[in-house]
Amino acid sequence: MNDKLKWGANMALAFAVLASMTAICWAQGKGGGKKPPKNEDTDPPPAITDLAVDEVSSHVVLLSWTASRDDTNDPDSGRTSQNDLRYLVDEPITEQNWDTATPAPSDPTRGSTPFQPGMTETFNVTCLEGDTTYYFAIKVSDEAGNESDLCSVPNECNVASGTTVSAKWTTEVVVSGGPFYYNVLAFDPADGGASIAYSSPGNLNYAHWNGSTWDTEVVDEAGGGGLDFTFDPDGAPTISYVGSTDQLMFARRGGTGWETEVIDSKLFDPLTSLAYDPAGNPSISYTAPVGKGKSKTSEVRFARWNDLSQSWDVEAVEILGIRTRYNSLAYNPAGNPSIAYPDWLDDQLSGPDTLKLATWNEGTWDIEVVDTGMNYMGIGTALAYAADGNPSIVHRAKISPDQDSMRYLHWDGTTWHPVPAEIDEIIDDGAQDFHFSAGTLAFDPSGTPYVSYVDDLLEVKVAHWDGVQWVIEGVEGCLPGYSSIAFDPAGVPPGVPSISYRRNWTSDLEYAQRLP
Predict the structure, then answer these.
(1) What is the pLDDT of residues 2-20, one digit of tens each?
(2) Nearest-10 Cα torsion for 171, 175, 180, 182
(3) Is-contact 399 433, C-beta < 8 A?
(4) How far apart are CA 340 and CA 410, in angstroms?
(5) How far, in Å, CA of 360 to CA of 364, rounded?
(6) Contact, 373 vs 388, CB < 8 A?
(7) Is it true that the peptide bond before 103 is cis, omega within 30 degrees of 0?
(8) What CA–CA distances, in Å, run from 302 to 214, 231, 313?
(9) Residue 39 has what pLDDT?
């Protein structure tokens, strides 16, 4: 039992003892004629009777139940004061082992106050281990500390006797003691080691697997937001990112350490996107503010290193209606840059909004509409070119004010639609918008699209198209955010999918690889 409930139970016991002593004294003519208190609350809430498992993922279990009321003997009493949800591994929970059960971690998708009596409550139990069987139980208590009876397996509750979560990915901690935010994964072409650029408060950092441990170093002590990361043609790690005073920055690791430079002096805090042109020059897409005050809007920009002038050329791609931070840069087979980005009508849910693709063509940017008709289209935009040489885009859009979807589109040379034609456009639907972090898209060596993202169960997931449907696998269910996918050239088999991600929002940077 947690400290708050122990305190409540102890107080209730103390009140009960005090009431008994007062009654005895009053019956014996002692106590100056005082009568026992009339309004003491000793009526506990009724026990939950329908705790149920609604959904099971690799590391998350979604539970539901009908909210109880404050007093067993008063059908019109209000809500209870606290839910106490717990679990045990490989053992049903009883009154005898209740104190040894693990309290479920808080679920940020809901508040801590129990619902009104009769309403359906839901709860995501996160941070569960794969290939493990869990048993769940719940008690509720009122403000006086009166505690309900236990609702557990295999008693009257409608929970199956044991819920097993499976694991298909192996995970490890790269660095702990965050918080960590943005992170991007790539593999070192020199030694094949996994490498991750990541941000922590005020710092841009770099981690590299040396074959036995993770080596970490600080790249810039005054920046690191909105980063992207890749290796240049010479095999040096390079990073685009936002500096401490909102500059667009570029960092490259040379023989004497990291060298950093300012490219643009002022921008929104966008997600920068870094790629190399066929000549080996770095290029970055980003968004920057235009105008002042109420007339301020945003502009999609493109910066590329110019070998002749030994400087960065910066140009405008399109001025948008409002501030937006999402953009993704890639080069097409002809060697021309393309940038995918959203164009929002406003920052409310009044839509419809638009997802666009701008492609450089003989001295100008050709801009086309990829998708439109829903609100907040283009959140988490990720662009990559498929084996057929045509672009594919993953992005997020709102189906309704409280539901999102991860979407996949491909250009077939004539129109935008899922290709092959039977590929589902909808990869996954989410219950609430903030659960989906920016998605990442990459193609494995055989040309299969893979997407990493965070879903409505607060689990980082990887989806791939198996020729018939999107196969979705859970990787980690401990409140993750910001993931990045890449393929390990030295994996077994070669090209095994791997991801980096932020775990628990404030604690660890993690690395995961698909099990054979």
Answers:
(1) 443 333 334 333 333 333 3
(2) -70
(3) no
(4) 12
(5) 6
(6) no
(7) no
(8) 34, 19, 8
(9) 59
Q: Which two tokens stand for residue 431?
A: 């219950």
Mean predicted confidence (pLDDT) in 387-397: 90
Rounded Cα distance between 309 and 296, Å, is 32
Q: What is the separation, in whole angstroms, between the first and last Cα of the chain? A: 41
Say which amino acid occupies 168: K
pTM of the model: 0.80
CA geometry: angle 483, 485, 491, nearest 5 deg: 135
Query: 286 pLDDT band (50/70/90 cuts)?
Result: very high
Which residue has 């003892």 as its token pair? Answer: 17
CA distance 410 to 408: 7
3-state secondary structure of 332: coil
pLDDT per residue as tens digits for the range 454-488: 876 678 889 898 888 888 888 887 877 889 999 99
**Other beta carbons within 10 Å of 294:** 5
CB distance 513 to 497 below 8 Å: yes
DSSP reduced 3-state for 11: helix
Q: Are 377 and 362 in contact, with CB atoms under 8 Å apart?
A: no
Q: Do 134 and 473 contact (CB within 8 A), yes or no?
A: no
43-57 pLDDT, tens digit each: 889 999 889 888 887
Alpha-carbon dihedral angle through residues 21, 22, 25, 31, given to the nearest 10 degrees: 140
